[in-house]
Design brief:
The chain is an alpha+beta fold. It is 68% helix and 14% strand. The protein has helices spanning 4-24, 30-37, 41-53, 77-116; strands at 57-65, 68-75. It has a two-stranded antiparallel ribbon with strand order 1-2. The chain is elongated and about 80 Å long.
Length: 121
């Protein structure tokens, strides 16, 4: 089971990835977001609704093709500030993860080197 901190970082990770993508591609579909993030369409929809309710993004209808309507999602000023905040949080989390992996790799390399030394009489 994940700790509360890991869960909040996961949420920050999705929030970061969603806000980043929407900033550069506001007309992306929820289906594309789900596929790219590797999460369910329902989870994307839930996250998008939460971002709208928090005032971080604004959804506008537009005609995609033929008779089909789609949405464009635009970051609000509050959303731009939130993206900056979660970018910093996500970066700190990834740097800590990187440092932990680096320590683990260093330890494994030391263990391997010690085992490769020939036995001395």
């Amino acid at each position: 089971m994940r700790s509360t901190n890991e869960q909040s970082m996961l949420n920050d990770e999705y929030r970061y990835k969603l806000l980043k993508r929407l900033e550069h591609e506001p007309e992306v579909s929820q289906r594309e977001l789900a596929k790219d993030l590797g999460i369910s369409l329902g989870k994307v929809n839930y996250c998008m609704q939460a971002l709208i309710e928090r005032g971080l993004i604004k959804a506008n209808n537009f005609r995609k093709s033929g008779n089909r309507s789609a949405y464009a999602y635009y970051l609000t000023p509050k959303g731009i500030e939130e993206k900056a905040r979660v970018t910093i949080a996500f970066l700190k989390y990834k740097l800590a993860e990187y440092e932990a992996l680096k320590r683990e790799i260093d330890n494994l390399q030391r263990e391997t080197e010690q085992r490769e030394l020939p036995d001395r009489p």
